[in-house]
Fold this protein.
Amino acid sequence: MPKVALITGTTGQDGSYLAELLLDKGYVVHGLKRRSSSFNTERIERVDVHPRHPDARLFLHYGDLGDMGSLVHLIREVQPDEVYNLGAQSHVRVSFDVPGYTADVTGLGAVRVMEAIRIAGVNCRVYQASSSEMYGSTPPPQRETTPFHPRSPYGCSKVFAYWSAVNYREAWDMHVSNGILFNHESPRRGENFVTRKISRAVARIEAGIQDTLFLGNLDAVRDWGYAPEYVEAMWLMLQQDKPDDYVIATGEARTVREFVHAAFAMVDIDWEKHVQIDPQYMRPTEVDALIGDASKAREQLGWVPKTGFTDLVRIMVDADRQLLEDERMGRLVRIDR
Ligand code: NAP
Ligand code: G4F
């Protein structure tokens, strides 16, 4: 019998790569998608065959992390072996505008998933998408034993979800693991996260359809990895006999300014002629530096990052140049089903 996985956040960057990875490994994959007034399944369209097709192994279900009933019904129905809780209001700046909503979906949502598993009485392994944002103002390098000091409603919500995951493991003997993932990017990254905002702007500026890129803090330091490699780490965590918590990171520190410089250099354009600072992108409290130490994941999971900073920037800029070209040629088709 193939293994059955349930992914919340399957329409997001990580959820889409994870669905592809698990399908490649022979899993049957169920994904939670929330109702939206416009299409939100674009990232998984390439692997999403019609559910009545005999080869179908990916099934999407309406539900919401704010709605306990939908989670209980779904878990009861699909009887998963593995649950990956990736769904979240995941934008740090936006979390200052919608703190209550972020706490509900990103924080309490994790509790709802774990409680729904208990109520449904399903014996499964759980991955909780924890974040380096939990370290906040604690200086780098950050590892599993580093104290948390979150600096945003998002970070606070993730700390709550992290400790809730630990508590479900200890109180109910559940196989729950936290992946403390540092920033990871890809051509599927949402367009309002800084790396994708930059790569998309570089393609548009090169094509002459945008002149200025407005950004916030260029001095922030991040440890940027390549998302498809990070979802492999999620899967590895759930293959361990014992649940545990792991930092996943490259250990390579770069500023936002360095990302801007590298991305514009790839199309031979002077970034200083096109980038302006807009205070609306500054955060009330910033996280100055996140640099991870993933030694535990290397030693216990055998996980190592493969894609370095320059290759990551190249992948993203190339993909956005190609996307723009496809859009201009009218090549993109949205599949309705
Ligand atoms: P993402 O692209 O923003 O995806 C978030 C997913 O959550 C989307 O599928 C979204 O649905 C879904 N979602 C939002 N609100 C929901 C709700 N109320 N009910 C159900 N689903 C909901 O995020 P990502 O980059 O893939 O990250 C995946 C997870 O890892 C998140 O929990 C994030 O906080 C965490 N994380 C990410 C990073 C990173 O660098 N990417 C690092 C550490 C931790 P829609 O498609 O409809 O919006
Ligand atoms: O790309 P960002 O929005 O990512 P941030 O805040 O680090 O959060 C991401 O990584 C976390 C892991 O540490 C995840 F948990 C979280 O879900 C998300 O995926 O911003 C990166 C840096 C920040 O310091 C921000 O202030 O870039 C700076 N920045 C400068 N200008 C900007 C901008 N960020 C955005 N989004 N937009 C700007 O114009």
Summary: The chain has one domain: 4-190+225-252+286-307. The domain at 4-190+225-252+286-307 is CATH 3.40.50.720 (Rossmann fold). The pocket of G4F (ligand 2) is lined by residues 90, 92-93, 131-133, 182-183, 192-194, 197, 215-217, 220, 222, 256, 281, 283, 286, 290 (CB under 6 Å).
